[in-house]
Amino acid sequence: MIKFGTDGFRGVIAEDFTFKNVELIARALAVYLSENFTKKEITAGVLVGYDRRFASDKFAKHFARTLSQNNIPVFLTHMCVPTPAISWAVRKMRLVSGVIITASHNPPIFNGVKIKNRFGASVTGEVTSQIERLISRPKKITRPRIAKIKTVNVTADYIKALRGYLDLKILRKSRFKIIVDAMHGVTAGITEQAIKDTPFKITTINVGHDPFFGGINPEPIEKNLTALKRELQTGRYDLGLAFDGDGDRIGAMCPNGEFINSHQAICLILLHLIENRCWRGKVVKTINTTNQVDKITKYYELPLEVVPVGFKNIAAQMIKNDVLLGGEESGGIGFKNYMPERDGILSGLLLLELMACRKMSIAAIIKDMEKRFGCFRYMRRDLGVKKIKSAKPIKNFKQICGEKVVKIEDYDGKKFNLEDDSWLLIRASGTEPIVRIYAEAHTLTQTRRLIRFGAGLL
């Protein structure tokens, strides 16, 4: 059974993720487009790209051929590309849709399909539900015709877009040394090209094409970045950046190897856009994202919207409203005056721009932010479904770890908001067969207590 999750369909290669299932999804997408868009809109075509995972290029070509055989014009990328490059190209080329073969940060045995709408954002749950129904009850297109498949280079225009968004004048006045962990993904070399004519010195590690990602899941979280930490602790660099397998999420580290989590990155860039670029707008965050965002938006009197996990929920707000920044716990961040989609590479480049504007180390900037808006310590623990002892509903508590529960939210898992601004969230992952336990408090000790409490409920 093909079931779409938080962002697309993902499955184990040769089990759930097969050429047959890829063909079924492509055919269902073709029918969906034919039933929901005009002939002129469909004629604009669909862009198909792929990442560096095992056989992604072959799956992409099969997807493209299936669309073509169902009379959908197709543009196929000439090489592996970051997901944000697909989103950008769909908007720039004014296409009806975009597709990328990727499983993002999942383990190497997975692959997947992400579908983008004409705005470059991930399609909504309503759209994927329609596609699922069409897969289970396929409709044949009357008079099938074979449309053309054209090979295109979208990377060059994407790099131009990155450069166009950055304040290169400011960057040219700085001489920071940066190290980037590409995690064997598709971002290798792009950061260098985006700021090629600045004094920044960039060293990149884990650049080679390795479908096993060096034996590490390509997710830029602390436990996966030991190589980056080791390089930073040599004292030769001012900042470490890391990107996930398809380039839409960021991880970062201070010069001493201390991890900068996604929540800190979101808040740092939010403050940069407010204070250095003097931009305003609505801020959107997912339910599992830091309360420090709330403190910042309250201080600057900016509207804040909280949505379920999944950047598609942020993107929906970005399409409808003037959104300054949208951020999610997993490291996906989207920006005003760009596109309604997350971009890990641009997120990293904006951290460089922040350092250049403030003329300070990243550690000093974080210290200043915490002095002004409070110190928040976050943790996440993932439990495999097989390890969960109980499937009983989680009851409502009035007190957790000595703190009063002031609000319970249950629209995406179960979240307990506590009186001291700390919180605990338990929810099933939408991309992997695991349950995630999230917690945030003002001290790491209290955060650990919350995590243990949450784990004890399962």
What does this structure look like?
This protein has 15 helices and 21 strands. By secondary structure, it is of the alpha/beta class. The strands form four sheets. A six-stranded mixed sheet has the order 1-5-4-2-3-6, sandwiched between helices. A six-stranded antiparallel sheet has the order 16-21-20-19-18-17, with helices on one face. The protein has four domains: 145 residues, Alpha-D-Glucose-1,6-Bisphosphate, Chain A, domain 3; 102 residues, Alpha-D-Glucose-1,6-Bisphosphate, Chain A, domain 3 (3-Layer(aba) Sandwich), CATH 3.40.120.10; 99 residues, 3-Layer(aba) Sandwich (Alpha-D-Glucose-1,6-Bisphosphate, Chain A, domain 3); 80 residues, 2-Layer Sandwich (TATA-Binding Protein), CATH 3.30.310. The protein starts with 8 loop residues before the first strand and ends with a helix. The longest helix has 18 residues. A hairpin with a 2-residue loop joins strand 17 and strand 18. Helix 4 packs across helix 6. Helix content is 35%, strand content 22%.
Brief sketch in words of this structure:
With 458 residues, the chain is α/β, with parallel strands linked by helices.
Number of helices: 15
Strand order of the largest sheet: 1-5-4-2-3-6
Percent of residues in beta strands?
A: 15-25%
Mean pLDDT: 95
Outline: globular
Given this structure, which CATH class of the largest domain is correct? Alpha Beta
Unreliable residue stretches: none
- The number of strands is 21
How many independent structural domains? Answer: 4
Question: For the CA atoms, what is the radius of gyration?
Answer: 22 Å
- Cα-to-Cα separation, first versus last residue: 27 Å
Biggest β-sheet description: 6 strands, mixed
Kindly state the percentage of residues in helix.
25-40%
CATH architecture type of the largest domain = 3-Layer(aba) Sandwich
Q: By CATH's scheme, which homologous superfamily of the largest domain applies?
A: Alpha-D-Glucose-1,6-Bisphosphate, subunit A, domain 3
In terms of structural class, how would the helical and strand content be classed?
alpha/beta
CATH topology of the largest domain: Alpha-D-Glucose-1,6-Bisphosphate, Chain A, domain 3
